[in-house]
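Q: Hi! First time asking for a complex rather than a single chain. Here are the components, and I think there are two in total. Is that enough to go on?
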Amino acid sequence: MSALISTRLRRAFGPVELAALLVLAALILGAAFGPWLIPTDPIAQDIGNMLLPPGAPGHLLGTDELGRDVLTRLIYGARVELVVALGASCLAMVLGVTLGLLGGYLGGIVEMVSMRLVDIILSFPPFIVALLFITIYGPGQGTLIVLLGVMLAPTFARLVYGQTLTVKRLEYVQAAVAFGASLPTRLFTVVLPNVAVPIILQFPITMAIALLTASGLRYLGIGIVPPTPSWGGMVASGQRFVSQDLWLIIIPGTAIVLTVLSFGLLGNALQYWLDARSAGDRR
Amino acid sequence: MTMASETSAAPSDAPLLQIRDLRVEFSSGGGWTEVVHGIDIDLHAGETLAVVGESGSGKSVTAMSVLGLLPRTARVKGTLRLGDEDLLAASSRRLQQIRGGEIGMIFQEPMTALNPVYTIGDQIVGAIRAHRRISRQEARSHAIDLLRQVNMPEPAEKFSRYPHQLSGGQRQRAMIAMAISSQPKILIADEPTTALDVTVQAEILDLLRDLQVRMGMAIMIITHDMGVVADMASRVVVMQHGRIVETAPVKALFAAPAQDYPQTLLAAVPRANFNAQTAEAATSGKPVLEAKDLRVRYPSHFIAGGFLAVDGVDLRVDAGEVVGLVGESGSGKSTIGRAVIGLTPATASTLRVCGHDMIGASGRTMKQLRRTVSIVFQDPASSLNPRATVGSNITAPLRWNGIEGDGRKLDGIGRELLERVKLPGDWVDRFPHELSGGQRQRVSIARAIAMRPQLMVADEPTSALDVTVQATILALLRELQRDFGFACLFISHDLSLVQQLSQRVVVLRGGKVSEQGPTSIVLGSPNEPYTRALVAAAPVPDPDLQRQRRLARQAQQASDRAAAMQG
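A: Yes, that's all I need. Here is the structure of the assembled complex.
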């Protein structure tokens, strides 16, 4: 049995998936401890050394148009990006799971309200809402987290809703009713653990979407105040110097692509692994 | 007609279908796992061969390999000959011709075997035209003729019906019409009546027997039901763990099985002796369940006011008494079971359970009530929480009702309860998927006695289990009932089980009580025609007795029909 699971684990995490895990680990460690390892100031300008190519002495990835070290900015940017993506995904998960679980299990008016709420959120184009929100509440990480959290909640809500509809008809949930389990007990100790797998699978994918959307917003110049470094902002400012230094957009762009891709691959690998396990459960 | 089937049972020399040293392997992990370990079967013209075995015996895999229907992950070795033809060497094109050509087949679940988006007529026409080049018009009239041959009521009208518009028995008739459309030499029937009610089962078996004589087919019937074997077969192959344990003529097998396994199998079959006196326990006269004019309505989009699943049922279960609730699918028996423990809202002029009035009961009363009633569900695969350990599943009622919260004590109670249901106490840490169906059902029973209930509802607790397992679960239930003295509402479609376990029996039909009383009287000499039909239709595992019962049933039906014609 355990041998079977480890076979599946090995199959789920092939060389590509392991590389993705490595990228994510490096990213998280870099974001957490990078500022202590590289004591350069991400916003210290050095006009004399502007637009240095990668590999220049003292600047591993070169400098930008104001002479700021690109590697340092990339690391500080990673903190910003990851905090927003993680915060938004957690908020989306909590909101979505609550809506889906209550709506799916209770039915009736609760189902109507929660699922219509989901429909309403889905019917707004994210970027327009983002523009509106940031205009009203001002830029900042908090605003961005709340905004993305709400916009990404529907995926979780629909997922959990559908699963709950299936699970609530099963006899072990009926048994919980018959043997006197209270409603919160039924929801959180009986139904929730049985709809957890798709939630876990959705999480890294939501991280990728949140990261991409946040970078997109920052590229458009909303969501974060310069000179705080962010990947999207770096691409945007680098764009103006495309003809002189291509690296300024290639480096942050690559960081975005690699991170999103890694989260996606992690999601896939988890799905393969956990789905196979739950298929084993059903036998 | 029945005489003909007896004589045609004599096997002719050359077998139609010859299976030699058949081995089937499935790929698993990196290697191959053999599930059928070299079996030999001959099927002769005109005979009915029953392949019996419990789940996992390889009987269905064997049938599938004959038809070339195994998935790509399977590998078949050995010899499979249809007449002079080697089936294993046949091209997939040729196999397609054979399937539904020389060999017809019917499956257990006609709802999934038929395509829901085409009418049954279209599907039969499709089957006909797949093997013969005739015009659509000709095929149509041929299809209607086939529907008539399988005794489909109003064949011309049923031609343009979709599968969901037919009853289970009619769907199976449509499947049979498709299977015989090419006048096959062999009909393979994989559990053809398992999903059907017992009266419908009797009709379908009658039909198969009749068709076999008329068309001279050989039938290979795969089943787990010894009653069906006794009713249908001329020869029997008993399989266990992918091997053939015994091959014998039906009478010899039932009279004196040579091997151990068939003996156990036969001993495990519940033998209804409807004329025997059951020991009637002296009832205390103190009711734990009292229902008068019980009604349950399900909301429906099609019927104004909803569908009345239970329509004015009076029911009483005394303390320490086992009452059997029998009926066919749709009779409302499960709904009643759910209603009396408050899982389904019901109305009634009286509904008192363990001293609590349930009509308009407050949340507090319901809480009290749930401490005194319990339920064992039918499906062992879904009645336990897959994400909780066995121990946690068993002791959950104690936690939920705030009786015991201490983890170590709960662990001890879980072990004790596991031992009560004759499982090792150490299994508290296992997960449900590590257990077999019968073991899971034991865990389910342990959970149901955890609260020392006064009333237990057992909703078809053994119908998903193999017959040898069923016997042990029934013995366990009986023992626990005696030791703990709870009253039990035992819901089943199987009369012989009810007869074994219950002192009184309530027969339901269409949401109404058709007959009720002491078990020996209701099942021994039923008053109502419906109960009589139910008792007559249940096949008994004894070929000679079953033949007498069949003839008696057919005579009764004929006289009923004659009476109806005159009336």
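A: The mean pLDDT of chain A is 85. Let me know if you'd like any chain examined more closely.
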